[in-house]
Design goal:
Aspartate Aminotransferase, domain 2, 495 residues, single chain, Aromatic_deC, four-stranded antiparallel sheet, 3 domains, 42% helix, alpha/beta, dopa decarboxylase, N-terminal domain, Tyrosine decarboxylase, Aspartate Aminotransferase, domain 1, pyridoxal phosphate binding
Length: 495
């Protein structure tokens, strides 16, 4: 305990490493045992941590025990606890023992595999695991390395979007010249994640050239081919060029599913890059009964999904596959002298790749070992059971909501996401919206669960996403009891 003299500091002493790492593991195990003791959503005032910590960094080092005591006292109470079994907000951010072990190996080995020579096996393991994932999801051969395509592990969908937009942009500008960027148009639905608007802006697409296409309840809020084709034809008539189309399988707000095959045919007709965003629901495609949602993927240029959402792989990890890697590497590659491989030419083959040319940054983490450990530890059978367990829980929640005449399921359940609202028959639409806002606030303020909302067709919708690694049916039942309890209180006060 107390301060450590500077001369005693050995940053990577193996014995210290073993002891302090064990202490952190014990700390985290205790945290998971007791995570239910904390309010799921943080209940702190802005700036609270600044009041607890000094204004300057410490001059002398401190013991790990003292640091962890401060984490327990000052940090944990101000967190929103994403690994709580009663966390039903946004989409899940899965953690698991295997994911943690993989993360420890990645952090502990701390290699930086930006070029093949920087860590050959790290590069090649990444190629293997993205091919494993492609096969599990049922992606066509064109996205496998042996089929001429290939994959890479990014940190997030945001990175994947910027990289594919850049590839699509440069492919178009190679024919048009750089001034042609003012003619390029990107298409997405009103359910598509805002990441695509941000990505389009980053790569220089004029904001006026981003088309947000309306969806409706008739198509389950999925984007239809007719809608896209009309928009493209109108743009072509204006002298614009359809650059990029996003199809989403499992949108963030409602879990809507775009019609991939239909959209793929439209994209092919006009030479438009088609990206399939399956960030959340892509995990479900390892189950044969859900692979039909990716029907038509062979018509796409790129596909992405996030194992860190629902695939028991700790943050961060996003799989991106491209059918023509050269298109992307041409847009992203650099070849300074100091990064050229120095191995004998006899060791280099056409299969050797440098992942620096598949991403935005130069440096990169050894994410492949994390996903590899998860796949090895749980196997396809275990992962399918994980996905199906959550879907069964969501099916139960949807049934009980539909059975209570005070509530309505706003859209049919999609995967493990249920969208619902309190809908008393005696209230008008304005009162219903206010009531549901109050209901959501009351549920979250209780600390017993955390859920979020969406707005569709002017309706304020409460969305409950089942997917926590420690979530059991009893926690979903508890969330429903909490929703009913708060609804009873609100209805009693307004009647």
């Amino acid at each position: 305990m107390g301060s450590l003299p500077l001369e005693a500091l050995m940053p990577l002493d193996p014995e210290t490493f073993a002891g302090e790492s064990s202490t952190v593991v014990d700390f985290l195990a205790d945290y998971y045992r007791n995570v239910n003791k904390y309010p799921v959503m943080a209940n702190t005032e802005p700036g609270s941590i600044r009041k607890l910590l000094p204004e300057v960094a410490p001059e002398m080092g401190e013991s790990m025990d003292r640091i962890l005591d401060d984490v327990r006292r000052d940090i944990l109470p101000g967190l929103t606890h994403w690994q709580s079994p009663s966390f039903f907000a946004y989409f899940p951010a899965n953690a698991s023992t295997a994911g943690f072990v993989g993360e420890m190996l990645s952090a502990g080995l701390n290699v930086v595999p930006f070029v093949w020579m920087a860590s050959p096996v790290a590069t090649e393991l990444e190629q293997i695991v993205v091919d494993w994932m492609a096969r599990l999801l049922g992606l066509p051969e064109c996205f496998h390395f042996k089929g001429g395509g290939g994959g890479v592990l990014h940190g997030s969908t945001c990175e994947a979007v910027v990289c594919t937009l850049t590839a699509a942009r440069d492919r178009a500008l190679s024919k048009l010249g750089h001034a042609g960027i003012l003619k390029l148009v990107v298409y997405a639905s009103d359910q598509t994640h805002a990441t695509f608007q941000k990505g389009a802006s980053i790569v220089g697409i004029p904001p006026a050239n981003f088309r947000i296409l309306r969806t409706s309840a008739d198509s389950g809020y999925g984007l239809t081919a007719d809608t896209v084709q009309r928009a493209i034809e109108e743009d072509i008539a204006r002298g614009l060029i359809p650059l990029y189309l996003c199809a989403t399988v499992g949108t963030t707000g409602l879990g809507a599913i775009d019609r991939v095959r239909e959209l793929g045919h439209v994209a092919r007709r006009y030479g438009t890059w088609l990206h399939i965003d399956a960030a959340y629901a892509g995990s479900a495609a390892i189950c044969p009964e859900f692979q039909g949602h990716l029907d038509g993927t062979e018509l796409a240029d790129s596909v992405s999904m996030n194992p860190h959402k629902w695939f028991l792989t700790n943050m961060d990890c996003c799989c991106l596959w491209v059918a023509n890697p050269t298109t992307m590497t041409n847009a992203l590659s650099t070849d300074p002298e100091y990064l050229k491989n120095v191995s004998p030419a006899s060791k280099m083959t056409t299969d050797t790749i440098d992942y620096k040319d598949w991403q935005i940054a130069l440096s990169r983490r050894f994410r492949a070992i994390k996903l590899w450990v998860v796949l090895r530890r749980y196997g396809a059978v275990g992962m399918r059971a994980h996905i199906r367990r959550h879907i069964r829980m969501a099916e139960w929640f949807e049934r009980v909501v539909a059975a209570d005449e005070r509530f309505e399921v706003v859209v049919p359940r999609s995967f493990s996401l249920v969208c619902f609202r309190l809908r008393p028959r005696f209230m008008d639409d304005i009162a219903v919206e206010a009531l549901n806002r109050e209901l959501l606030a009351a549920v979250n303020a209780s600390g017993r669960a955390f859920i979020t909302h969406f707005v569709v067709d002017g309706k304020f919708v409460i969305r409950l996403a089942v997917g926590g690694a420690m979530t059991e049916l009893r926690h979903v039942r508890g969330a429903w009891e909490l929703v009913k309890e708060k609804a009873d209180e609100l209805l009693a006060n307004c009647c």
